[in-house]
């Protein structure tokens, strides 16, 4: 038996909770969650302490409620987009419910008002460093820098994936951005008048999510 699809749309770095219908889980014998077409479960409970299975994509990200069967995914990334299947074993037989999760890179409207604001003033041609004040990263951070009121993505790195930073491909910042992979700070070299404006960073990990904002004035 297949339940109706349930759709969740979240942004990178946020958390999402997939909540089963209590009427469907009442008196369950076993609850098991799978991801995409993988037959292997990622989380399981028989009503006692939950069990998590070896899957590097979800390392330290899953929280399964052993009483309700709800599954929370923290610090979610685009690679976690897809169909999550909940299998509920009942006395009357199994019930499967699918949840479709879409992880978006779009900036959050609320991000614009979150975080401490810092002011930076530099002269044209100078270097400016936007300090996150992070002393140490945990190793699974997703760092996203955005510019302007529209929240244009200008720099991004996934520490856990050990991938090189991705920078804004247009001409505004070409070859002038350096993202510090140890602190998440952003360096703008050879600054220009057009670099003036609002910068914001979101550093999310399984431990916490940090927001900071900077107003840069280049004169």
UniProtKB/TrEMBL annotation:
Q: One Pfam family from the UniProt entry?
A: V-set
Top-level taxon of origin? Eukaryota
> What is this organism's lineage?
Eukaryota, Metazoa, Chordata, Craniata, Vertebrata
- Ig-like domain location is 107-217
Q: What is this protein called?
A: Ig-like domain-containing protein
Stored InterPro entries: Ig-like_dom (IPR007110), Ig-like_dom_sf (IPR036179), Ig-like_fold (IPR013783), Ig_sub (IPR003599), Ig_V-set (IPR013106)
